[in-house]
Request: fold
Amino acid sequence: MKKLLMIAAALCMAAGLVQAQAHSDKEAQQDAQRHRAMAAAHEAAAKCLESGKKHDACQKQLQAACKGLAIGKYCGMKHEH
Reply:
């Protein structure tokens, strides 16, 4: 049973890879633009922290910049503290 579940999981992952490769050139360009926008938002958050502002203020700035860009409240990225 455990092997069957592992095989099923591998098949699901492979299907996801095939689906991900099925993006058109336009969709790939849109994905690249979203990644650049998320990277810019994270760079701004890093600069905010380096400027000495409080973490909560920088986090709010990041959340506002990422609204509609990424899944979750951490703009597609979360790390430990």
Summary: The CA atoms of residues 27 and 77 lie 22 Å apart. DSSP finds three helices and no strands in the chain. The helical segments are 2-21, 25-50, 55-66. The chain has a mean pLDDT of 79.
